[in-house]
Amino acid sequence: MYKRQARSWSAEKDTRQAAEAILGGARLALGLSPEVLADALKAGRILAHAQGFRLLTAASREYQWSLDLARIAEIWRAGCIIRSALLNDLADALRADGAGEPQGHLILAPAIAEDLAASVPALREVVADLGGNALTGAADITLNGTPDVNAQINVGALDLTGFAGSAPSGTAPASTTSAPSSTTGWSKAPIDASALSAFNGEIALRADSIDLGTLSLGATRVLLRNDRSRLVAELREIRAYAGVISGEFVVNNRNGLSVGGALNATSIAMQPLLQQTAGLGRFHGTGDAEVSFLGSGASLDAIMRSLSGWGAVNVGRGHIEGIDLDALMGNFDVEGGTTVFDSLAATFDMDQGVLRNDDLLMQLPNFTATGTGQVGLGAQTLDYTVTPKALRVNGDRGLAIPVRIFGPWAAPQIKPDLQAALDMNFAKEKEQARQKLNEKLEEELGVSRQDGQSVEDAVKQKVEDELRRGLFKLFD
Question: What CA–CA distances, in Å, run from 368 to 167, 178, 244, 314?
Fold first, then answer.
């Protein structure tokens, strides 16, 4: 029946052409040699025949049919549908063991086992298309409920922008030299992580490069372990932004989506990384960083607003565009320019999508700078104060000019805090001036202060004393 139906369909050329227009006629370039394909087909045929004869053996025993399996193979060989030359080898193997299967199963017959051992590895060869990406490798797949996969996958340039989503709204590509303003924030589109429930197992991935939209990675070696919708990515080595990233990244979709991990980055070029991920293009330098984080939510925006964790960063010589702290020390009205620094170090904590830091230390050629403040990772905002201090001015006390950086992080405002500068740099002079003023007021008002008493309190006390004496005179 199936043979006649297949022949009937093969004659319906118009139907096949119409189906091609609907279903697509494109073919993926497999990248497998004819020899591998032939071995895979041979292994599949041996296993299919062995399974069939296994069923016949079980039925013969159950119903006492006394089937001659070797003769059945010969009959099929002379038929009009199967007619496989493999049946001759199967018949010989079956006849060598009488009417039954060799050693309990056909695949254990010496000649068949030898052919199978040589051809089975070809079944592990994997060629697949993932959103236009050609994947190759080897895999073992166990189909028992949720498929269990053990695979090694190789790919050249892996483009996952269609799966990872686009860059954050308001950000620009890495080649852009100035950071654009951010008005809409992170994407609020729902993230579909349901694919994590489709399989369990381990996948070792090697890629020449990976494009995630918001991240561009170079040569990558990652081991993926998925267990009941919880995927752990062991980042064995990722070349990115002129450096190396390693650590662990976890995506858990068992009870709502959450992401977390512990990452280490070595010799990373900061400007392209920050520009591509957050639209921040002002900061240049090469450094090391570590971060431990956890976030949850159904969208990228929700995850960024929920982030918690900690981290540290150390950067060597670099520069910051948009402000010249060196020139600012001599002129409060300076705008724009570039700050060159020799080193920068800081640690930070994160909670509810807000990063806080209070120990920034930046070494510059002519002075040092400290910093404290917060970064709204979810809201994409800054509220940070950097305080450079020149050590060779203002006597031996130095001169400090706090600079506040605030607003949207893609286009922040940068302003010196003059009141804070006066308070920090001229506290001694202010105290001396206040003392002189108090002494003058005491002299003019005729009051004397007690220890620790202010001029205002002394004046108040004098007025109260005068009123008290006036009241007593009314009763004299």
Answer: 35, 26, 29, 15
HEC states along the chain? CHHHHHHHHHHCHHHHHHHHHHHCCCCCCCCCCHHHHHHHHHHHHHHHHHHHHHHHHHHHHHHCCCCCHHHHHHHHHCCCCCCCCHHHHHHHHHHHCCCCCHHHCHHHCHHHHHHHHHHHHHHCEEEEEECCEEEEEEEEEECCCCCEEEEEEEEEEEECHHHHCCCCCCCCCCCCCCCCCCCCCCCCCECCCHHHHHCEEEEEEEEEEEECCCCEECCEEEEEEEECCEEEEEEEEEEECCEEEEEEEEEECCCCCEEEEEEEEEEEEHHHHHHHHHCCCCEEEEEEEEEEEEEECCEHHHHHHHCEEEEEEEEEEEEEECECHHHHCCCCCCCECEEEECEEEEEEEEECCEEEEEEEEEECCCEEEEEEEEEECCCCEEEEEEEEEECCCCCCCCEECCEEEEEECCCCEEEECHHHHHHHHCHHHHHHHHHHHHHHHHHHHCCCCCCCCCHHHHHHHHHHHHHHHHHHHHCC
Residues of the chain with pLDDT under 70: 1-10, 23-31, 80, 82, 97-104, 162-184, 323-336, 391-399, 417-476
pLDDT of residue 457: 65
CA distances to 129, 385, 457 from 397, rounded to whole Å, are 67, 20, 33
pTM of the model as a whole: 0.66
* Portion of the chain with pLDDT greater than 90, in percent: 32
Task: Please give the class, per CATH, of domain 31-123.
Answer: mainly alpha
Q: What is the pLDDT of residue 435?
A: 61
Q: ∠ CA(421), CA(427), CA(433), 5° rounding?
A: 120
Q: Which sequence spans correspond to the domains of the chain?
A: 31-123, 426-474
